[in-house]
Amino acid sequence: MQTADFDYDLDPQLIAQTPLKDRSSSKLMLLDKKTGEIKHYHFNEIINLLESGDTLVLNDTKVIPARLIGIKEETNATIEILLLKELENNQWECLAKPAKRLKIGTIVSFGDGLLKIKVINKLDEGIVHVKLIYEGILMEILDKLGTMPLPPYIHEKLENQDRYQTVYAKNLGSAAAPTAGLHFTKQLLEKLKQKNINILYVTLHVGLGTFRPVEVTDIKNHHMHVEYYEMNEPTAKKLNELKKNGQKIYAVGTTSTRVLETIMHKYGKFKACQGNTNIFIYPGFEFQAIDGLITNFHLPKSTLLMLVSALASKEIILNAYQEAIKCNYRFFSFGDAMFIR
């Protein structure tokens, strides 16, 4: 299976640069994963597309304001750092730009020394391991100095940093937002609960892979990134009951999907656990956990596009994308949504 099979042309003007004022007013495409039938709605109408007893599983990770611009102490060169994940004892894995200016022992200062990093290891593709040097509470310092690590295709400044967080974001640790969840408002979630829609949460901290395209010719040779996930006991128990009763389980986002399918494939049931997953879902994958998926429109040749193509089919998904282009849907992180069921 070739990476090129998952390519499509997109007018850059359809890439959403800013979030809509009302989160839930985005367009929503309903896609039948078996027939390919398409219907058009707005996201706040999702309540009419779900039945009493259905379940939505959301990813409650919270994005760290992890993009930092600093000064290399020896030369005053400008260095950009993106904190990806904590390794141990204030040691972090980062994406550095330009990484070639850094060597082991280099110190970069942020905010007149409020935060400093010391490079302790260099890896490939701009990855460095650093030791953070600061006094006080790290997240308070990052709130002062950092900005949201928006994807490279977004060129507009984000006026309200909270618009790159879901309204239910809780567990700090992501380098990118689980963007399918950006469409939900607190009011919409409350209305769903009133209709007896189960709202459950898992955690997956979105990492470096979000920023990496698939560069191999054969997708089976792609090296999938690793991300931390967890599921608690009440959620596992509830999901097992729902599965036993044959009720519909819909993942909100590819990140929630990866958690649910990782656990189900590993244990044959939902289980309270935590760990790291590098699950790669592409056509031919046998879904065991979910019945459908709420998601955004994804980049060409991305692992996310491959995942949704596994749930429907490549032909059905790419046809739906062409329909979205024809109907001027907004694409990617701040764009419109698709409900595949």
Give an overview in words:
- The structure is a single chain.
- This protein is α/β, with parallel strands linked by helices.
- The chain has two domains: 3-63 and 160-340, QueA-like (3-Layer(aba) Sandwich); 67-145, Thrombin, subunit H.
- It is 20% helix and 28% strand.
- It has seven helices and 17 strands.
- Strand 1 (27-31) and strand 2 form a beta hairpin.
- Helix 6 packs across helix 7 (314-326).
- The longest helix is centred in the C-terminal third of the chain and has 14 residues, at 254-267.
- The model has no long low-confidence stretch (mean pLDDT 96).
Structure class:
alpha/beta
Low-confidence stretches: none
Distance between the termini: 24 Å
Largest sheet: 9 strands, mixed
- Report the radius of gyration as a whole number of Å: 20 Å
> What global shape is seen?
globular
Share in helix:
10-25%
Across the major sheet, the strand order is: 2-1-17-16-14-3-12-13-15
Q: Return the string of H and E elements.
A: EEHEEEEEEEEHEHEEHEHEEHHE
Count the beta strands. Answer: 17
- The CATH first-level class of the largest domain comes to Alpha Beta
**Count of distinct structural domains:** 2
Number of helices: 7
CATH topology of the largest domain: QueA-like
| Beta-strand share of residues | 25-35%
CATH superfamily membership of the largest domain, which one? QueA-like
Rounded mean pLDDT is: 96
CATH architecture of the largest domain: 3-Layer(aba) Sandwich
